[in-house]
Amino acid sequence: MTRTGGSRVAPAGAAAPATATASGAPGDHTIQRGDTLSALARRFGTTVDALAAANGIANPDLIIAGATLHLVGAASTTPPAAPASGGVGRVVGRTTGLRPDLAGSLDALSRELGVTISVISGNRTLKEQALLYEKYRKGTGNLAAKPGTSNHERGQAADAYVDAVPLAKVPGAAAAAARLGLHFPVNGEAWHVEHV
Ligand SMILES: [Zn+2]
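Above: the input record for the complex with zinc ion. Below: its predicted structure, written as tokens.
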């Protein structure tokens, strides 16, 4: 069989490896068309292996739309706050142009913590970076990389807060962020988050 690298969702009605039980229970997720195990693992802060093991899924590339996925393998010690739609937790602000891995993990983090994450600076143009660098040089702004060298210019960095608290200082955020592949690489800038 040819591996395409992508997962696919089989039509409902095919033999379901995931157990079909009443959906809506806490810690359960009803598989939607378009879901992949890797995306769900990331969303719920767990791994493909843990989800596959918890649900008796022999082939992680094949999950069944409409089946119920038990999230008992989730890394979080508390049950996931809510599924993606209608749950607490969201990311607001300057999210346009952020790389999908960074945006996706920030989104998952906001839901895991049940908070609104505000991105006050995300993807920057060369001109915006030049302005920030100028302020830094004059001593009126935060440390800013030279124009052309900032990860912000590639959508790989976000400056993020929760209620004016730098993201890394929010209780529980650092550990949860690490599980989601996020890190805070700039010393003294607990708001500057990147995807590993
Ligand atoms: Zn930054």
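Notes for the reader.
Residues 152, 157, 159, 192 surround zinc ion (CB under 6 Å).
Residues 8-70 form a domain with the Membrane-bound Lytic Murein Transglycosylase D; Chain A fold (CATH 3.10.350.10).
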